Amino acid sequence: MSDHYAVIGSPIGHSKSPLIHGAFATATNQDLEYTAIEAPLDGFAAAVHAFRANGGRGLNVTAPFKLQAFELATDKLERAQLAGAANALKFERDRIFADNFDGVGLVNDIQRNLSVALKGKRVLLLGAGGAARGALLPFLAERPAELAIANRTVEKAQELARAVGAGSRIVGCGYRDIAGSFDIIVNATSASLKGELPPIAPDVFATDALAYELVYGKGLTPFLRLAQNAGVKRLADGVGMLVEQAAEAFAWWRGVRPQTRTLIDKLTVSLT
Ligand code: NDP
């Protein structure tokens, strides 16, 4: 019988994870089945336990269950701990391991696929939700010159900056207090899902900046349009991050890391 994995969320119909992991399994000759589970909003833990009881080996976790997945785990890896959220679970005997690959997926997409190094750069992270939290340790590991976190709820950005405690290299602030221009600007808010834009000025984008939108498949979002109008040439959405975080989870579960390029190209939507 094939090993069983799944993505769990609510709603889940839109998820590209079954397609991505199915392609990874074929490409790496892994005998596994990957499905999608829509759990009731008040029934996440029960759905996870039922999946485990039926022999399930691991889950990708998406909105709105990343915090609950973290709580449910018996063993929480460091990135998940800082994020306070898990986007992948692995089941071994009576243990539930939790990790968070969103941040490492984002870093891999920026550095490997887009060929933009984080080292020595001024980085601006918009948002202080789960995705921004998950990005922090992987970003800091690459030693940017500065990392500014700006958020609508200012205290959350400040708290996050304090939590990583990396001294003067990291600041948390509100949008109106963003100072100067940045080489890499990442929109880790969910504003674009509603066609909205965090209130940032066009001069946050340095010459030759990379503007990266976590939301994917929506074309030119208000954030990317602002960047483009400010003269930014390097625009990206989160499709590469999506595929890269999936590859990390796949490697964690199966011990083999799939190639990502073909799949990213296949799923990419034009940003013009
Ligand atoms: P959360 O709900 O945890 O956080 C949402 C963040 O967006 C908060 O910082 C919130 O600010 C901010 N926000 C929401 N609306 C607005 C607005 N109108 N103006 C300014 N700020 C706003 O979400 P996640 O962190 O989990 O996800 C963020 C986005 O990243 C989502 O759109 C998600 O689709 C995307 N994502 C993409 C992934 C990928 O693989 N490409 C992976 C994970 C997430 P406040 O704190 O003030 O409420």
What does this structure look like?
By secondary structure, this protein is α/β, with parallel strands linked by helices. The protein contains 10 helices and 12 strands. The strands form 2 sheets. A 6-stranded mixed beta sheet has the order 2-1-3-5-6-4, sandwiched between helices. Strands 9-8-7-10-11-12 form a 6-stranded parallel beta sheet, with helices on both faces. It starts with a strand and ends in a 5-residue tail after the last helix. 45% of the residues are buried. Bound molecules: NADPH dihydro-nicotinamide-adenine-dinucleotide phosphate (NDP). NADPH dihydro-nicotinamide-adenine-dinucleotide phosphate binds next to helix 6 and helix 9.
Measured distance between first and last alpha carbons: 45 Å
Please mark out the parts with pLDDT under 50 across 5 or more consecutive residues, or reply none.
Answer: none
- State Rg: 18 Å
Number of helical elements: 10
How many domain regions? 2
CATH class category name of the largest domain: Alpha Beta
